[in-house]
Structures are given as C-alpha cells and as structure tokens.
Amino acid sequence: MGHIHDKSHSHAAGTGKEGKGHGHHHNISITAGRAFKWGIGLNLLFVAAEFLCGYLSNSVGLISDAGHNLSDVASMALALTACILATRQTSSRYTYGYKKSTILVSVANAVILLIAVTVIIAESISKIIEPEEIKGDWIIIVAGIGVLINGFTTWLFTKDKGKDLNIKATYMHMLADTLVSAGVIISGIAIRFTGWSIIDPIVGIVIAIVILVSTWSLLKDSVRLALDAAPEQFDVNEITAMMNAERGVEEVHHVHIWAISTTEYAITAHIVIHDASVMTEVKERLKKLLGEAGIAHSTLEFEDCAHKCSNCGCGGPQQSGI
C-alpha cells in the first residue's frame, strides 16, 4: 500500500508576462523572424559603407564599429536560425525538438562579441601608439547614418525583448550600438574642431568597454542555461514553498528546474500527499500553479504517506514504483 503509479507530465501555457509565461513561443518566433530579417539586411549595408568610409578616412573608430556591427549581423543570423529550429517538430531522437539550439546560439553570440572586443582594443592601442590623420567629417556623416539604422533596428525588437534571451541580447546590442554611434559623432566633431586624432582610438576603446559590459550579462545567463542551472527568474526554494503550500501536499522534494530553450522552462519534482484519493485534484492544481509561474513543462512524481507503517520507524513516505 501507499504506492501511487502515476507520473504526471504537463505542458501548461504561461501567463505571457515578461520573463515568465512563454506559452506563445511560436508566435514570438514568427514576429521576431521579420525583425531579424530587416535588421540583418539594413546592418549588412551599413557595415559595408562604414568599413569603406573608415578605411578611406583612417578611422579606427569607424572600422572597429563596423567590425562590431558585423558581429551583430552574425548574431542576428544565428538567432534567426535558432528561432526557426525552435519551431521544428520533435522526433524519437530529439524529444524536445531543437529548442536547446536557442541557448547554444546565445552562448555563441557572447563569444563572438568577446572576440570583437579583443580586436577593437588591439586596433585602438595600435592607433594610439602610431596615430594617423583622421577626417572628422567622414566620421560624423557615417555615425549619423548609424544612429538612424541602429535606432530603427532597436525599435524592431522592443516589443519582444522581454520574451526571449536572444531577442533581448539583440535589443541590448543594437541599443548600445545606437549610443556608441552617437558617441562617435561627438568624437568626429571634436576631431573636426581640435585636430586631435587620438580621440578616435580612445572612442574605439570606449566602444569595446560598452560591448564588454553588455556581453558579460549575456554570457553569464547563456552559460547558466547551457549547464541546466535554474533560470535566474526562478528561485527553486520559492517554487518549492509555493507547491508545498497547496492543500493536500505534505512535502515537496527532489525539485529540478531547467531551460528547454530561451523561452521555455521545465520542472521535475516528487510530491508527497496524505492520501492517494486526492492525487488527481492536487495534480491539476499544481499544474495550473506552475503554468502561471511560467514553467510550461512539469513532470510530477507522487508519493503517498497516508498508509506508511507507524511501527517500523522509517519516518518517511512510501515511494511510488514509477
């Protein structure tokens, strides 16, 4: 007695709140896909123009910013690929589909940005050691175009930035690019009126620092999810306490929460109940509770403590055979 041969698995829809409910991830992929395509096209054109102008004007600020924007294009292309893969059907081998690719892409994006930072700093230091004459007018014109393109691309991702880690990363990067381009305009004006070419590589270093700061958070979150750690927005102790507070639940243990993708989360847990007759009722309430918290996939194993032996001294519930 005391064994409950039930192991419930649910796919509850989320609430749609930022960072929590993600029951509409397929719609997110479709709408974000359009934004990624626009962003990739516009930024590719801008990268080519910026690199050419940087080369002609000897501006490391423009060349470094072009390299950074090229890394953003690569990041957007990877994120778009991950969005497409996330919608593919599951199979007997890939039982969760290809949703984990979104996490791998976020790690790759962080690595790409770190490489870009290294190149920018190295080139900037080289220009400080051996300064070259720079044409400030070129910098002002190209950076002005950059503000418009980066600002528009940032706006494209505003709506969905709180629903997916890759979209949030793209939004943050494009916002940083907009601010950096504004900074480059200021440096161009300063060079134009002072003739101090050293301002340009200094701006290049500032760009690298801005990228590094925004990348660190992305790298930390991405690696955490890749290692199946509990996502930052979920406190395992709080989730456990929330489940344990439900009527009919005696104890909750062996709780594990991890990310299936950058928008979907899963949980497994052992639920001790006082009587097998309330199992279905408790299961439905817990599934709804977890869905509202933003965990769409729940696998719950139930244990019955109502019939445990009072004389054997085991002091614990009898576990199910599942």
Query: Gyration radius, to the nearest Å?
Result: 26 Å
Quaternary state reads single chain
How far is the first residue's CA from the last residue's CA?
14 Å
CATH homology superfamily name of the largest domain = Cation efflux protein transmembrane domain
Count, helices: 8
Strand arrangement within the widest β-sheet reads: 1-4-3-2
Strand content: 5-15%
The CATH level-2 architecture of the largest domain is identified as Up-down Bundle
Strand tally: 4
As a percent range, the share of helical residues equals 55-70%
Tally of distinct domains: 2
Main structural class: alpha+beta
Q: Please tell me the overall pLDDT.
A: 77
Element order, helices and strands? EHHHHHHHEEHE
**Bulk shape:** elongated
**Largest sheet, if any?**
4 strands, mixed
CATH topology type of the largest domain: Alpha-lytic protease prodomain-like
